[in-house]
TrEMBL record:
Highest classification ranks of the organism: Bacteria, Bacillati, Actinomycetota, Actinomycetes, Micromonosporales
Keyword tags: Endonuclease, Hydrolase, Nuclease
A Gene Ontology molecular function term of the record: endonuclease activity
Pfam annotation, one family: HNH
Domain HNH nuclease: 56-104
Keyword Nuclease: yes
Protein name listed in UniProt: HNH endonuclease
CDD domains hit by this protein: HNHc
Region (Disordered): 113-132
Length: 132
């Protein structure tokens, strides 16, 4: 069933076309089951729909200078300075260009902190019984 989104000049609803998978050559409708959704983050949180606009507003996006180490790296990427799992937002003031080395290091550190957070949330084993 088409999603109805806009009205024509006569007031009739116009159906919105379904989006295709972002993978070149794939004819599936998005989100494709065989390919990852391009806006999916490394975790379980989805990036906002206006991510392409937001990342262009990130600090040092045009100059490609890393906000962490100060080196120029055209192969880097936009990163959340304070990651969203730790209270960061998608506001452009929290986005910055990160060189590949700093991004990888920061991602690993965040991953370890996330594992520790998850372990703290898990209930302790019952007293008097051994944990499996």
């Amino acid at each position: 069933m088409p999603s109805w989104s806009t009205r024509s000049t006569t007031g009739d609803l116009i159906p919105r076309a379904k989006k295709r998978c972002a993978k070149p050559g794939c004819k599936e409708v998005a989100p494709c089951k065989r390919h990852k959704v391009w806006k999916e983050s490394s975790g379980t949180r989805q990036l906002p729909g206006n991510w392409s606009t937001l990342k262009k507003q990130a600090r040092n996006f045009a100059t490609k200078i890393c906000v962490f180490c100060g080196l120029r790296d055209p192969g880097g990427q936009v990163d959340h300075v304070i990651n969203r799992a730790e209270g960061g937002t998608d506001d452009p003031s929290n986005l910055g260009w990160a060189c590949a080395r700093c991004h990888d290091r920061k991602t690993e550190e965040e991953k370890l902190r996330g594992i520790l957070r998850a372990q703290k949330k898990s209930p302790p084993p019952p007293k008097g019984r051994r944990a499996l």
